[in-house]
Design a protein that fits this description.
Strand content: 5-15%
Radius of gyration: 21 Å
Largest sheet: 8 strands, mixed
Number of helices: 15
Helix content: 40-55%
């Protein structure tokens, strides 16, 4: 009886990944169904930021059901508007082939000179930024990358505008840089994907659930232009997260951590509890380019996968919130891992007949 009345406070860290963010939609839908999980700080980048503002809008204007409805409305609009696939905006470019070819030849300042971004219209129509800024229960941290410095800028819910969400999702090969207070910003995935350090160091809630979209391991060597570009992008957008994980693991394993001043960043990181839901085994086999093409069937498939993984995580791990981590950051992100196709010990190879 005690457990049924307990509120489990949880931070969220939502990784970017274009249309693959529909998986996160499913996870969030499942979390919002559970009255015993209370969302606190939400760190989001790119598609993660898109999902974060949908949740914040719903919780700020109507509650859990409104948040779920807002997520569905936004993702339906994404599919209808073909966000972020901008090839359809220009009849000439619509036949240009793979995005790899487009990126190497055209700039968004050429093929999209007016800077049109269909995501802006969706956000303006469906998100009440005034309500988000006034909400003191759910706090957002939306990451964008300062073009001049390459460093992450975390925009908070107290200051949040539509431009800041657009900045977080601004792929420089598709969109003009977003200008905010005289500075140019690109996608937050280059610098914080998503930010974990602020959650672990500053949030009053001691548990963070990371929703990871990009696979950490790739079993095959990419050999085509499209698969090479896809892997390069995945590696690039995983690096900020891996760096932050390294920092947190060092804090957790530091012998001085327990003797650091109470409330210091190191002591908070050492004590913070982490949890994980991964989309990797659902996204790894999707076609190259699926991140940038919001196909209706793929979005539905990923949404249902997110629902399943969210339900499974809640069933298995909800009781651990406030008590212990359910993922070892070192074991999962740092400890050397063998690819599925690699033998654990080198095996002798049969002699091959070689013709000269």
């Amino acid at each position: 009886m005690w457990f049924s009345a307990r509120r489990n406070k949880l931070n969220l860290a939502l990784q970017g990944g274009g249309a693959h963010g529909a998986f996160t939609w499913g996870v969030l839908d499942e979390l919002l169904r559970d009255e015993h999980v209370e969302l606190s700080w939400i760190s989001g980048t790119s598609a993660g930021a898109f999902n974060a503002v949908a949740v914040a809008h719903g919780l700020s204007t109507g509650g859990r059901d409104t948040a779920r409805a807002t997520l569905e409305t936004l993702w339906t609009a994404v599919q209808s508007a073909r966000v972020p696939d901008l090839l359809s905006l220009n009849p000439f470019l619509s036949g240009a082939g793979a995005m790899a070819n487009l990126n190497g030849v055209f700039s968004p300042y050429n093929f999209n000179p007016l800077g049109f971004d269909p995501l802006r219209k969706i956000l303006v129509e469906h998100i009440d930024f005034d309500a988000i800024r006034a909400n003191r229960t759910v706090k957002l941290q939306i990451a964008a990358t300062d073009v001049a410095t390459g460093r992450a800028r975390l925009f908070t819910s107290e200051e949040l505008t539509v431009e800041m969400v657009l900045a977080s999702a601004c792929l420089p090969t598709l969109h003009h840089a977003v200008m905010i207070d005289g500075r140019a910003y690109w996608d937050g995935g280059f610098s914080a994907n998503p930010d974990l350090l602020s959650l672990a160091s500053s949030s009053p809630v001691g548990d963070t659930l990371l929703v990871l979209l990009n696979p950490l391991l790739a079993p095959d060597i990419p050999k085509t232009a499209a698969t090479i570009e896809d892997r390069v992008n995945t590696i690039t957008f995983n690096q900020p997260l891996l760096r932050e994980v390294d920092t947190i693991v060092r804090a957790k394993e530091s012998q001085l951590g327990w003797f650091a001043p109470r409330g210091s960043a190191v002591s908070r990181q050492k004590a913070h509890r982490f949890h994980l839901i991964e989309a990797g085994h659902h996204t790894a086999d999707l076609a190259t380019g699926s991140k940038s093409t919001p196909d209706r069937e793929v979005l539905r498939q990923l949404y249902l996968a997110g629902l399943h993984e969210g339900d499974r995580w809640l069933t298995t791990n909800k009781h651990a919130i406030g008590k212990r981590s359910t993922i070892s950051l070192r074991d999962h992100f740092i400890k050397p891992q063998l690819l599925p196709s690699e033998p654990s010990v080198a095996e002798p190879q049969p002699l091959q007949h070689v013709a000269f």
